[in-house]
Amino acid sequence: MKKHVIIILICMLILLSTQQVTGSFNRTHQKIQQKIKSMDTAELNYELPQWSMGDYWTYQLDFSFEMRDTDYDISINLYLNSLDWTVVGTTTNEYTMSLESPVSGNLYADIESVPTVKATLKQTNLDGSATIEKQNLALSYMDLEITGKVTIGIVPIPLEIDVIIDFIPSYSPLDFPLYIGKEWLVNGTTVNIEGLVRLQGISTLFKNIPDEIEVPTQSAYISENTATCQQQENVTISSIYYNTYNISLGDSYSIYYAPAMGNILTFLPLKENPDYFNADFSYLFRSTNYIVPGSPEIPGPPTGSTQGKPLTEYSYTAQTTDPEQNQIYYSFDWGDGELSHWIGPFNSGEPCETSHIWSEQGTYYVKVRAKDTENHESRWSDPLPVSMPKRGLLNILSLFHLISFQSMH
After folding, report:
1. What is residue 310's DSSP assignment?
2. Taking the model in full, what pTM does it have?
3. 396: Cβ–Cβ under 8 A, 6 or more apart, which residues?
4. Which of 8-12, 341-345, 386-390: highest mean pLDDT?
5. Is the model's pLDDT at 394 over the cut of 60?
6. How many domains does the chain fold into?
């Protein structure tokens, strides 16, 4: 049975790296840049998002795992740099999602009575599907396939892993509508994992490990927990602000749900791991094409001065329309760490003008987003670059312009 331990761990890693949220382990670090800004104090009420065919969300997942005891020493690093969740089917009650991502990583396993294994994944991809219930976006089923090569020493071995994961009952830490101060009970869930692993030729390296191993059903239990919608926060990832709800899940996790992207943005651990177990999990949102139904059109880049000098006030204008002709609020990201409050309301199509002062020289990328009076929020606009060069450079350019003008006359 011990020869199955490595394969079971791989299956567990697949589960951990593809769930939106899991209660199985505590994670020590989250590798995202996070900046918290104050937000409007009005209590908002966000309904269940509506996904459509073709909507996708891309995440980057990095997972490091170490577990040591007297009879084993195991460490695994797994990287999914571009994990795409795409809606490929929809019924009255469920979404069908496709999952795709290149996978890289390495494994070290020193287990009693089993030869030590050092392996690296090469040219490996994950493909699969998942079923998500429309009620509270609950995950109920996953069917995953990993194909590629695993290099043990210098020997490449073809790899195929088929994994089926059942959540009984389906699992979600969310409960819509969301509003600040809401508290709810997240049900416990039994996670059943089974699969088949093919490592063609591994038996020539390790006589006691067959080329094909059937992984018997393994079960894990995610305990029930109390979730609380604590507050609204602006979270910054890759220099983009996201308006999120901060949801605490017991004393284990802090979950960030972003209404404008209709999905979980990220989550953070709240306590440390025990000494014998260590895991480092980075769950980083990268992109989406999701648009909130009924939201204003994404504004164009703000208009205004593209060059100036520090400590001087400059005005910028934004404009968009709402498909339902609702009034619109605007929020500007000034590119220097400052984010404006929601300004408005303005009629659909009416321009919004505001101003900003930059305190230091540099190039700043000004963006704007919009939301209507029903709290349907757009994504950010493309940026307008604004340059604040050194005062000395401005003086030299002005002098050069003056000399050129005089020489012409």
Report:
1. T
2. 0.79
3. none
4. 341-345
5. no
6. 2
On whether both 141 and 282 belong to a single domain, the answer is yes
Q: Are residues 245 and 113 in the same domain?
A: yes
Separation of alpha carbons 299 and 380, rounded Å: 7
Closest C-alpha among 383, 317, 301 to residue 351 = 317
Neighbour-count burial for 217-234, b at 16+ CB within 10 Å, e otherwise: ebeeebeebebebbebbb
* Mean pLDDT on 380-388: 95
Instruction: Give CA–CA dist 380/371, Å, rounded.
Output: 11
Q: Is the peptide bond before 345 cis (omega within 30 degrees of 0)?
A: yes
**What is the residue-averaged pLDDT of the chain?**
81
Same domain, 257 and 169: yes
Residues 352 and 377 in one domain: yes
Whether 193 and 15 have beta carbons less than 8 Å apart is answered as yes
Is 402 among the domain residues? no
Q: Is residue 298 part of a domain?
A: no
Q: Which of 30-39, 51-60, 67-76 has the lowest mean pLDDT?
A: 30-39
Q: Do 270 and 373 belong to one domain?
A: no
Range of the domain at 99: 2-288
Instruction: Choose the final residue of a domain: 288, 321, 341.
Output: 288
Output the DSSP codes for 207-232.
TTS-SEEEEEEEEEEEPPEEEEEEEE
Query: What pLDDT, in 10s, does the model give residues 172-210?
Result: 999 999 999 999 999 999 999 898 988 888 788 777 778
